[in-house]
Amino acid sequence: MKKTSESTNQRSIIALKTGHDGAIAHILDGVLDFSYESEKDNNLRYSEIDGETFLKAFGQCKEVPNVFALGGWSEGNDPQGRKIEDGYCGLGRGSCSETVFAGRGLKRFSSGHERSHLLCAYGLSPFPQGTPCYALVWEGHIGAFYFINERVEITKIKDVLSGPGIRYAFLYALGDPDFKMGRGAIRLGDAGKLMAISAFSKGKRLTKDGRLLIDRILSASLGGKDLCKDDFSCSPYYNCGIDHPDFPDLVKYLSDQIYIKFEDAARDVVVDKHPLLISGGCGLNCEWNSRWISSQIFSDVFIPPCSNDSGSAIGTAIDAMMEFTGLAKVNWNIYSGENPVEDINELPGFKEYPYDPAHVAELLNSGLVIGWMWGRYEIGPRSLGARSILASPVSVDMLKRLNFIKKREHFRPIAPVCLEEDMGDYFYPDNPSPYMLEFRRVISDSIPAVTHVDGSARPQSISREQNPVLYALIKKFKEISGISVLCNTSLNFNGRGFLNRLSDLLEFSLKHKLDGFVFQNKLLIGHNDSRDLS
User: Using an 8 Å Cβ cutoff, are 314 and 473 in contact?
Assistant: First the structure.
């Protein structure tokens, strides 16, 4: 599609994602300038876009953007409900019009939510524009395969299973006595908990009741939107409790059945060896990602770190960029969120030191748990070394302490961060995993705090180029301990997004009894800790 000289001048594009996981992204001259997510800065998880995030985003722009892009959505739990902008489903090119903002005329663009997933994965992928790709969108409502040709034209090639994310998360709701939500509703955080529980499966054959339950969930009409917990009140697993001995086997069976449906579909429709792009919330499931990679159906597999709806604003911005310039690839960095805010001067209860990686490595080696806030926060839901809680992985007691600090369930694992060049000493396979999106088998008994019950972990590999500050810290930790791995879990209050203010970091440290924290180039150690090693 040839672009006019007017259209190719659309150098500044800002895009907004409505609904849960609200975000605003800005592309400037083909570079992802920022992506601000409403939940971050200690707001409620999955928050919709709010005025504060809107103002912060526009305050970051040096000038009024040329294009204002709005992602499609729909009202209620039904993607076929009343359209917001260009709606939830659909692959057609977006709609364009003229509008005025701050007294200046600019282009207005909107495209559907389904397209935003696809363009996010395509635009962030390492494959050059023009590379034919298969794509999989699997999320709360959509479960389908697509083909993207050399001209970046998108064709749906197979609907596989509607509502895979809803069906998956529903099983947790069914077993949890505390779940009281109505028909078609799920809790967005339950899918990640099921991924952890699945590892506890003993591989037992399910009872007849168990198989009937899973078959009923998978065959539910309306993409799972008609699922209601009370309709299953006769099942022996209704409100059985997450600790029920059969529950992990139920979870594993459901997980396997969903994945098998999609892999079988892929083998039916894939005719050439092209890369696979994965997007949608199910792209955060590390087991499924690892199975796609090992399936060898595709020449390569790429999953963006913001595969869930937190990346939809980026996808809409890329779609707008393609509409006006013909370009569908952006340069980007995982750390494209906000810089931390130093909003207080007094830090009662803590002694301040200048940041020194050797000092912090000594503290970690002595068993201290350290909060970590350095540079711009990560895009997507995984903590990747900018908003983290760090600790030594050499004792299983550290797993218990970190879950206590985070106020999380006992069955939740803690992820490791490892020097990229040392991955082979701890994990198999040993290729880089920069976004913590795959399971790897742990092959060392020296890191029990990050080894899940089934011997797996979801590591983040870290290179000097990706994050030089964290890389240098782990190098120092290795010099002292002989271990080039740290525990890395997200820095947030339970039910809220990443912290981004010094005042919130102080409050978290005091309430959750962190031993200390790093804020940019400062190290703060609690006065009551005798192990500051200064």
Answer: no
Q: How far apart are CA 97 and CA 108, in angstroms?
A: 5
- Collapse the DSSP code of 399 into the 3-class scheme (helix H, G, I; strand E, B; otherwise coil) and give the result: helix
Q: According to the model, what pLDDT value does residue 1 have?
A: 45
Q: What Å distances lie between residue 505 and 364, 486, 512, CA to CA?
A: 18, 20, 10
* Tens digits of residue pLDDT in 286-305: 999 999 999 999 999 999 99
Residue 67's nearest CA partner among 35, 23, 104, 36 is 104
Angstrom distances, CA of residue 305 to CA of 336, 460, 463: 12, 11, 16
Contact 289, 278 (CB under 8 A): yes
Rg of the chain (C-alpha set): 23
Amino acid 9: pLDDT? 61
Confirm whether pTM is higher than 0.85: yes
> Contact, 14 vs 65, CB < 8 A?
yes
The contacts of residue 138 (CB under 8 Å, 6+ apart) are 144, 160, 164, 165, 262, 278, 280, 281, 282, 283
Q: Using an 8 Å Cβ cutoff, are 427 and 457 in contact?
A: yes
Answer for the pair 357, 363: CB distance below 8 angstroms, yes or no: no
Confirm if 243 and 190 have CB atoms less than 8 A apart: no
Q: How confident is the model at residue 418 (pLDDT cuts 50, 70, 90)?
A: very high
pLDDT for res 223: 67
Report how far residue 390's alpha carbon sits from residue 449's, in angstroms, rounded to the nearest whole number.
12
Average pLDDT over residues 438-444: 98
Per-residue DSSP letter, 15: E
